[in-house]
Amino acid sequence: MAMDAREIERLIKAAIPDAKVTIEDLAGDGDHYAAHVVSAQFTGRTRVQQHQMVYQALKGRMGDSLHALALQTNPPADSAPGPAAPQRKGRK
Amino acid sequence: MNDSPVFKRIRQEIAENPVVVFMKGTPMFPQCGFSAAVVQALSLLGVKFKGVDVLTDPPLREAIKEFSNWPTIPQLYVKGEFVGGADIVREMYESGELAEFLKGKEIALAD
Predict the structure, then answer these.
(1) What pLDDT tens digit does each residue of chain B (111 aa) get?
(2) Complex-level ipTM
(3) Is the minimum CB–CB distance between B65 and chain A shorter than 8 Å?
């Protein structure tokens, strides 16, 4: 019931093409990963929404064939604000 | 909107309890490291919360994933709002954002 790191990256990039994906195999068992995903598509979305986008990309594998994926998502560093910040509609 | 009994129960839990964690095991005996991490973050902040064990209730375990559109457990709800799973709660706890968020929702924290 394990999943290859490259497969995880491929699925995320298929759904979020500009994503920069860093994956670490935490236990070396192909079953416990930490993924850091950076994408401009996260800008202005809450952290919950950002994670939902990644889970959507993994098409139901999360919680199934992929038991443990510690997930961190961020908009690119130069773009605006903290993930849980209120959503902004345009800048003032 | 889904009106199944189990969805009604979920709505009732999050309406009646300001802070709810749907988790594996109980706050005293979590059965999974991710659930334990959320319990620990809330406990360190001195927040009163209700733990709902999904392991003893298979229909609830499946329904909560659909209800929140979130594939994993634990799940934290504050004042009826889905806050996130273990990763988000940990990140928010470490940055101090969780304490601010709870205060903003008028949830009492220990000093």
Answers:
(1) 678 999 999 999 999 999 999 999 999 999 999 999 999 999 999 999 999 999 999 999 999 999 999 999 999 999 999 999 999 999 999 999 999 999 999 999 986
(2) 0.84
(3) yes
3-state secondary structure of A14: helix
Residue B101 contacts A, CB cutoff 8 Å: yes
CATH of the domain at B84: 3.40.30.10
pTM of the model: 0.85
Contact status of A52 with chain B (Cβ, < 8 Å): yes
Name the residue facing A55 among B71, B83, B101 (closest C-beta). B71
- Domain ranges for chain A, please list them: 5-74
Instruction: Name, in order, each residue with C-beta under 8 angstroms of A82's C-beta and a sequence gap of 6 or more.
Output: B97
Bridge-based pairing of strands A32-38 and A68-74 is parallel
CATH class belonging to A5-74? alpha beta
A84/B92 Cβ within 8 A: yes
